[in-house]
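My current task is to audit a protein record that another person submitted. What it holds is a sequence and that sequence's fold in token form. Thanks in advance; the entry in question is below.
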Amino acid sequence: MKSTYLFLIVAAAQQAFGAIGCTLSNPAQDLKYLYPEMTTYKEDLNEFPRIKDGAALFKALRERLGSDLDPIYETFETPYSVYGVFQGQNKIGIVHGVNVPGKGGVIQVFLSMDPKTAVIRSFFFQRLESPAARQLRAKEFRVQFEGLTLGDFYKHDYYARVEPGAKADKVAGIKPPALDAAGRPDYEASLRGIKKNLILLDFFVYARRFEPYFERAKQADGKAQARKE
């Protein structure tokens, strides 16, 4: 009886943690820092159980990310807050953050986006407990992602199959900071967080405009697998 009771407590705790989203600590201040010209902002909450075809989109997230989803921070019930930034009636920015598991704890990766082009304007960490925190937070590392889109990450998946090291592969051209073995996992987790962030924004904001790039990468992967067989 006692063991059953403990199991129920653990299960309830896992469900509670599984619903943890990633929000800005101080939206008004943080967004004003990112967009000094901001006059107002709007927060939209997106949850897979509450959106059309949510179950299919959640499955699609895993496929496009190319890895299993974390049972705590990446559940079907996890809420996602998208901040729309305005100057008067003009939408000038989009900000979104995600949680990804890291070696030293959860990593919170935020992107500031161009609302029209879906280009990364800036990327930053709200939370990063890592042996490599100083190197990953360094401006010279983070600025390399400015100007990239989800299409560039899907193209990276494509080139990895058909033309490794291609000059057109912008993601492959990113230079990682100098890291030892202890810091490497959090570097990989950060890249995963950026891609996951972009995929979710493509679902929630940009009407899946980068799907053709994913389909091309998927076809290349299928051909590569067929050759191995």
User: Anything to note?
Assistant: Residues 1-18 have pLDDT under 50 and may be disordered. Residues 76 and 145 are 28 Å apart (CA to CA). The chain has eight helices and five strands. The two ends are 52 Å apart (CA to CA).
